Amino acid sequence: MGVKVRAPGTCGELVQGTIDGENFLITCPVDLYSEVEIIGDGRPHRNVGSKTLTAVRKTLQYLGHGEAQLSVRVCSDLPVGKGMASSSADISAACQAAALYVGRCLTPDEIADIALSIEPTDGLFYPGIMMIDHVHGRIRRFLGMPPALFIAVFDVGGQVDTQCFNRRSDLAGLNAAKEKQVRQALELVRRGLATGDSSLIGQGATISAIANQAILYKPCLETIIELTVRFGAVGVNVAHSGTVLGVLFPADRKAAIAPCVDAVLSACPNIAFFRTVRLIAGGLTIVRD
């Protein structure tokens, strides 16, 4: 008898930075997923990284269960090292799958505690859109449910190791330098989520994306921002510690996405189009076959 749990990935973050020295991000969950299955047959693991196995072990320890001969299998839509929260999705789904296997169910806060003991984590496993301290977990604030938004996802290339990124010696100073813009971005996104106004969310995300250029530069970002407005996009967001960026379109402008993608690729030939996704509410799903 097995257990399957599915977690969404992300297209980076809507906002990320620090306020008064406290790290935070605003989640940007999308309809791409990692599915973790746990079976008690002792067969070899499949497509499983060390962090995911650590999540299973720590969950069982937390719940007072010894290590068992479990087979862990991962099936994921999410590329690694791009800022789409592949590790956070794997880890959070593994935590809940392990708990369910032994007859328990973890709260999002419990999952956050376990995940943060492994590495900095995205709050994609919380329902809705969250403001969360992804490094220490001191901030965990529900901001609302997302309006209907489509995101055209582009990749500027390369990979970023999240753990190495968060250990950068210059990161605290660079985050402090952009705090004014981050506060503005946070307020716009918070108001947008509270009122369902996608244009406010797009404005805030764009401010945060531009402010992050001094920390992790995205080539052609400014050109993309200027260009996509002409197609009805409400803004652009980025993976603040990754390589992807997203162009945000309200549902009534979905038809403009394809010509917009063509225009971006023409203007920025060194950037690749990944795919179009939907902004969704976060949260884990128990998969029932």
UniProtKB/TrEMBL annotation:
<dbReference type="InterPro" id="IPR012363">
    <property type="entry name" value="PduX"/>
</dbReference>
<dbReference type="InterPro" id="IPR014721">
    <property type="entry name" value="Ribsml_uS5_D2-typ_fold_subgr"/>
</dbReference>
<keyword id="KW-0547">Nucleotide-binding</keyword>
<dbReference type="InterPro" id="IPR013750">
    <property type="entry name" value="GHMP_kinase_C_dom"/>
</dbReference>
<keyword id="KW-0067">ATP-binding</keyword>
<keyword id="KW-0418">Kinase</keyword>
<dbReference type="InterPro" id="IPR020568">
    <property type="entry name" value="Ribosomal_Su5_D2-typ_SF"/>
</dbReference>
<protein>
    <submittedName>
        <fullName>Threonine kinase</fullName>
    </submittedName>
</protein>
<dbReference type="Pfam" id="PF00288">
    <property type="entry name" value="GHMP_kinases_N"/>
</dbReference>
<feature type="domain" description="GHMP kinase C-terminal">
    <location>
        <begin position="192"/>
        <end position="258"/>
    </location>
</feature>
<keyword id="KW-0808">Transferase</keyword>
<dbReference type="Pfam" id="PF08544">
    <property type="entry name" value="GHMP_kinases_C"/>
</dbReference>
<dbReference type="InterPro" id="IPR006204">
    <property type="entry name" value="GHMP_kinase_N_dom"/>
</dbReference>
<feature type="domain" description="GHMP kinase N-terminal">
    <location>
        <begin position="55"/>
        <end position="119"/>
    </location>
</feature>
<dbReference type="GO" id="GO:0016301">
    <property type="term" value="F:kinase activity"/>
</dbReference>
<dbReference type="GO" id="GO:0005524">
    <property type="term" value="F:ATP binding"/>
</dbReference>
